[in-house]
Amino acid sequence: MKDIEHMNEKRQLALDKIADADYEIYALLKQRYSPRVFDDTEVSDSDLNRLFEAVRWSASSSNLQPWRFIYARKGTDSFDRMVGCLSDFNTSWASEAPVLLFTAYKEKMDNGKENFHALHDLGLSLGSMTVQAQYMSIALHHMAGVDWKKAQEEFDIPEGYHISTAIALGYYGGVLDDLSEKLQKQETAKRERIPQSEFAFKDGWKNAKEKS
């Protein structure tokens, strides 16, 4: 009976998290959200390979492909070391994720010039990974709360490469009761986004707070 209740809870949460889009968009984009609880099923090597293959074919300025990743599974020493680089808040829930990743980028081109678009390309690659993951019922929770300097040292990141973010990864599911009451409220809160009028300006930049 309890398993059935958890399954129904999982389905209802997934339905509640579907974006209330102002315009019709691709279904996988509407369904995507960033959970803090995951199913405890181990993510297979094959599924991880598929996610990184989606990254591999992402758009990239001059085809430089500056993205880099470190990943580890729960229960390994590397995973624990990654957890040790997260903020206290992220540690409180991400330590239970099946997989953790650190994202990084190569700062310069091979000719020594700064690659101004490296972060842009890393972001594009993560967008590709996120959509591929959603297609596979895998959830990604991207985290800014990582001590990148500690991570650089802990994992011997070579000079010229920069840790950017962390990602908690696992199949959608899990049990909400495993989270604190505060996190449960965040997990079930209504999703909100600013309107297009505040970031898309026709014919030139316009302060979103100004009236036409």
- As laid out across the biggest beta sheet, the strand order is 1-2-4-3
Structural class: alpha+beta
Reported for the largest beta sheet, the result is: 4 strands, antiparallel
The overall strand count is 4
Give the count of structural domains: 1
Number of helices: 8
3D architecture notes:
The chain is an alpha+beta fold and 212 residues long. It has a single domain (2-198), classed as NADH Oxidase (3-Layer(aba) Sandwich), CATH 3.40.109. Helices cover 37% and strands 15% of the residues. It has helices at residues 2-16, 27-31, 45-56, 77-83, 88-94, 118-135, 148-154, 181-188; strands spanning 67-73, 99-106, 138-143, 161-171. A four-stranded antiparallel beta sheet has the order 1-2-4-3, sandwiched between helices. The radius of gyration is 19 Å and the shape is globular. The termini are far apart. The model has no long low-confidence stretch (mean pLDDT 91). Keywords: Oxidoreductase. InterPro entries: Nitroreductase, Nitroreductase-like. Residues 29-72 form the Nitroreductase domain.
Question: Could you give a short description of this structure?
Answer:
The chain has 212 residues and is α+β, with helices and mostly antiparallel strands. The protein is 37% helix and 15% strand.
